[in-house]
């Protein structure tokens, strides 16, 4: 566009062993970008892939210098890959999306429109999720609802990391240095004007999900423990309830004076023990977060970067 300065949009894509589909993703993005007015850059963060993902991205860069690559020294996890991508992005707005085309690029213009209308965060809200197991859909649905109740923050329902963020939000996010970051929660924490665009989440174009159950569980625990103290209160309530129960059981034993009450006592004892263990587990989870922050290790280590004019690193590692 002549005479008007086109703001730049950075697209951040975390990549972990995506060799099967990465070229199709790049091709789809290039096709999409060629039909847009805005200037774009694509920042791929290779999260320690052990396949050819990084080589394929470097090859693609030979024909398109809007492609940039940050390579981690090992697998640090999806949320840290996003964190790094956000820190390297130079755009006026930053869009985060999966590298498997599950988040359709066609939604980006709608996000940009909402951004231009004065919103600083435009998040993609999933209407449906194609090709995902009933287990994943159910647990995800449940998780977002529990999280919503557990925190005073307005963390939107059924919303992943696919979103557009204004530079003002990105600047704040880039400075946060919290271990085990739950990025979508942090974005809500930053505030500003936030709105949703809805979309249908597609199936992966290729390869398998890189989110096995343990990673999904880890993300859920990070989300809950970094944004809610409610689980800690559970022990207080459970303790009070069980105390009442034991008082009732005790009175019952004294009043009735019959045999067999020992069973009841035993059952109460078991229940109490299990709840004590559960409470200790909860406390340890929060303690672990404090322990991790006290180590003051960098969140991730970058091995190599390709395509950046200047190295801009928030802590310098
Ligand atoms: N990913 C990553 N590091 C990981 C796991 C996943 O960078 O440890 C990337 C992955 O390549 C993809 C995005 O994060 O671009 C989301 O992962 P995935 O598609 O496997 O999750 P799902 O869509 O199945 O929830
Ligand atoms: Mg995916």
From TrEMBL:
Record's keyword terms, sorted: Cell membrane, Glycosyltransferase, Membrane, Transferase, Transmembrane, Transmembrane helix
Main location as per UniProt: membrane
Molecular-function annotations in GO: glycosyltransferase activity
Keyword Transmembrane helix recorded: yes
Subcellular localization: Cell membrane
Coiled-coil regions listed in the entry: none
Annotated TM spans: none
Keyword Transmembrane helix assigned: yes
Topology within the bilayer: Multi-pass membrane protein
A cellular-component GO term for this protein: plasma membrane
PANTHER family the UniProt entry points to: PROPHAGE BACTOPRENOL GLUCOSYL TRANSFERASE HOMOLOG, UNDECAPRENYL-PHOSPHATE 4-DEOXY-4-FORMAMIDO-L-ARABINOSE TRANSFERASE-RELATED
The family this protein is said to belong to: Belongs to the glycosyltransferase 2 family. GtrB subfamily.
The protein, known as: Glycosyltransferase
Organism: Loigolactobacillus backii
Lineage start: Bacteria, Bacillati, Bacillota, Bacilli, Lactobacillales
């Amino acid at each position: 566009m002549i005479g008007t300065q086109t703001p730049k949009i950075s697209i951040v894509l975390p990549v972990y062993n995506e060799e099967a589909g990465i070229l199709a993703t790049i091709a789809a993005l290039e096709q999409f970008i060629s039909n847009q007015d805005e200037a774009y850059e694509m920042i791929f963060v290779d999260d320690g892939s052990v396949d050819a993902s990084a080589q394929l991205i470097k090859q693609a860069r030979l024909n398109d210098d809007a492609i940039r690559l940050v390579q981690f020294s090992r697998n640090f996890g999806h949320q840290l890959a996003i964190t790094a991508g956000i820190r390297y992005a130079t755009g006026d707005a930053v869009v985060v999306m999966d590298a498997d085309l599950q988040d359709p690029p066609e939604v980006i213009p709608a996000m940009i429109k909402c951004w231009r209308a004065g919103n600083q965060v435009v998040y993609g809200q999933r209407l449906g999720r194609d090709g995902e197991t009933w287990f994943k859909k159910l647990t995800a649905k449940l998780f977002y609802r529990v999280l919503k109740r557990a925190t005073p923050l307005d963390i939107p329902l059924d919303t992943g990391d696919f979103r557009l963020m204004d530079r003002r939000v990105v600047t704040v996010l880039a400075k946060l240095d919290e271990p085990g970051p739950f990025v979508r929660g942090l974005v809500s924490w930053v505030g500003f004007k936030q709105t949703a665009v809805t979309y249908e989440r597609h199936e992966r174009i290729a390869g398998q999900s890189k989110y096995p159950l343990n990673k999904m569980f880890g993300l859920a625990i990070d989300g809950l423990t970094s944004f809610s103290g409610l689980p800690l209160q559970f022990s207080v309530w459970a303790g009070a309830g069980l105390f009442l129960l034991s008082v009732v059981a005790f009175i019952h034993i004294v009043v009735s004076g019959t045999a067999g009450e020992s069973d009841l006592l035993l059952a109460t004892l078991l229940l109490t023990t299990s709840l004590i263990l559960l409470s200790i587990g909860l406390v340890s989870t929060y303690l672990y977060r404090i322990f991790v922050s006290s180590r003051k290790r960098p969140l991730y280590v970058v091995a190599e970067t390709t395509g950046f004019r200047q190295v801009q690193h928030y802590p310098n590692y």
